[in-house]
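Q: Hi! Curious about what Dihydrodipicolinate synthase family protein looks like structurally. Here's the sequence.
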Amino acid sequence: MANLLAGVFPILATCFHDNDEIDYESQQQLIEFCIKGGVHGLVLCANASEGHLLSDQEKRDLIAFCLRQIDGRVPVIVTVNHPSAKVSAELAQFAEAHGAAAVMSMPPFFGRWRAGLDEISRYFGLLNDAVQIPIVVQDHVLSDIQMPVSFLVDLARKYPRVRYMKMEAGNINFKTKQLLQVENQPFLGIFGGNSGCFMPEEIESGCTGTMPACYMPEVFRKTWDMVQEGREEEAVAYFTPFSRLAAYEKDVANRCVWKEILVARGVIAGHAVRQPKPSFASDWQLNQLLKVAQRAGLISV
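A: Let's find out. The predicted structure is below.
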């Protein structure tokens, strides 16, 4: 397999004009902002990218554009979620052909339909056979599917390209420890999710990377470096104000309303999200979001 995937891999927002079309100029600026911020890699078309709100053609166009702009400077993980293994595999092949370092998927689900463990295994088996790059299994609460540690380990033992996890369902620190304690477990790395609110503690639990939102990449990189250098208490002290912002983003200003911070930082032109816009995204809510960012020291208002 290629080089190990580890470190800070922010999820790249999808930038939109007010007319709901993708703003590729802002997209390019966002890519450069993240790379300048020291990211180890980037993630495309994930939930925090509004990937589920893009058409199949928009996904392909966006993947091709971003991978062309990134041009191998950092590895890119492309999300290929879909309830159909065939559709997911085809998108994974497209991403691989355009230079993706890995693909990521949740187990298949649609509405109230939830795949059973046998179906999940077949889904990842077909994805495994479709590509030659690593697969990241995303254990996300959104799917409402419980995947036990024993099942995840068996999945990776069965399929040689299933080599990474992204944990963001339940107690991710505990589940990470459980997985890593399995003798001869085959995973090469585990990414923490949940906006990176507790990244230092996730690393302490054994996570080898994090996938936060993309509005403060330099903060996550600085914290990551301090932890890797053994300066854990210093890292926590530095990161704590920003962890409040990450928690607010995740629990209060979700659905990419946090793009307002990227506008305030001069990175992208507009904060538009794909319609329908969340009803809570009022001027008052956006101003409170910016206050939290200001209190963290990320922006000045």
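A: A fun detail: The mean pLDDT is 95.
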